[in-house]
Design a protein that fits this description.
Elements lengths: L13 H74 L9 H10 L10 H8 L9 H8 L1
Length: 142
């Protein structure tokens, strides 16, 4: 099967050139539409992956926050106990072991680290445009 016409063939009409141009234009245009559609599909899949990762980050933060609240409550109980023991404290030559334990537990620091890997990745890589929801986008920026 030959693709190119021979030069000794009869001269073509202008309508033949018009149809050839139209077919070539439609082929390129359809290729552009297909590529555009594929790009939208890929971006929507990437958005879903980022949102799933964001939900995982929020679940991790929720667990950490509940753990921190429990620890803060126990530290507050130790502080209350230490204050009550100090209120009834009579000066002696020795300090009770109970008081030193309560002071030690009451002075614990609370370390709370939030997981922001997805939000940081979205900001740094310029992928905030992938999020279609303006409400989610604004909350991530805050």
């Amino acid at each position: 099967m030959e693709v190119h016409a021979h030069t000794h063939s009869p001269r073509k009409k202008w309508t033949h050139y018009l149809w050839e141009f139209l077919m070539l234009f439609l082929a390129v245009f359809c290729g552009f539409l297909a590529e555009n559609q594929r790009e939208h599909f890929v971006e929507h899949n990437r958005e879903k992956q980022f949102m799933q990762s964001l939900v995982e980050d929020l679940e991790t933060d929720t667990v950490e926050l509940h753990r921190a609240i429990k620890k803060a409550d126990s530290v507050a109980d130790y502080v209350d106990s230490a204050i009550m023991l100090l209120r009834d404290f009579k000066p002696q030559s020795t300090v009770s072991l109970r008081l030193s334990d309560l002071i030690g537990f009451a002075g614990q620091r609370q370390l709370l680290i939030f997981t922001d890997r997805t939000a940081t990745q979205l900001r740094n890589a310029g992928n905030m445009r992938l999020i279609r929801s303006k409400k989610v986008n604004n909350l991530l920026v805050k």
